[in-house]
Specification:
Oligomer: single chain
Number of strands: 2
Shape: elongated
Order of helices and strands: EEHHHHHH
Strand order of the largest sheet: 1-2
Structural class: mainly alpha
Number of domains: 2
Distance between the termini: 21 Å
Radius of gyration: 20 Å
Length: 171
């Protein structure tokens, strides 16, 4: 089976293991896109309410102290969202979702550009995740960092192999 890269020329078919890995990453990226849509819709449905009050009510409902670290962060970000232009929020959400779905499509359909996009967009987050782990280490943060580095490394190695084999096509 042959596939085509973004330039339309023939590119090699992936092995079964590589295809499975690429499709797993594609599903992961697609799920992130769907979750981002759900989060954006939920956020926009709350924008007509006093977000600080909604956040404070949730914190009280769960018996948390508003002065604790995570509840105070929630209150802080609720205030930031209320002060942010809605059009800016919408454009950021659309851009994020578009990138996630483009990655998912490109990886699922074995496009070289999909691998480049996924590797680049994943690598952007690594410095921020490292900083977070240095100053506020958590198990979840460690898992996210590990998964992201593993995906970026895998995609980077695959892209390097393609380039070395002279089959990278046009990007």
């Amino acid at each position: 089976m042959t596939m085509t890269d973004s330039g339309g020329g023939p590119a090699p078919a992936l092995s079964t293991g590589n295809r499975r890995a690429m499709r797993s990453i594609a599903v992961f990226e697609g799920v992130k896109g769907v979750l981002a849509i759900a989060a954006a819709l939920g956020l926009f449905s709350l924008l007509h309410h006093d977000l600080h009050h909604v956040a404070a009510t949730l914190i009280g409902h769960f018996g948390l102290s508003p002065g604790d670290h995570y509840p105070s962060l929630l209150l802080h970000y609720a205030d930031l969202v209320e002060d942010t232009n809605r059009r800016t929020l919408a454009l950021l959400a659309i851009a994020y979702v578009a990138v996630r779905f483009a990655e998912a499509y490109g990886l699922w359909h074995e496009r070289i550009w999909g691998q480049w996009l996924a590797a680049f967009s994943g690598a952007i987050y690594v410095p921020f995740e490292l900083e977070h782990m240095v100053f506020k280490p958590t198990i979840v943060g460690g898992v996210v960092l590990f998964a992201n580095v593993a995906i970026v490394t895998y995609l980077g190695v695959e892209l390097w192999r393609e380039r070395k084999a002279g089959r990278s096509g046009s990007v």
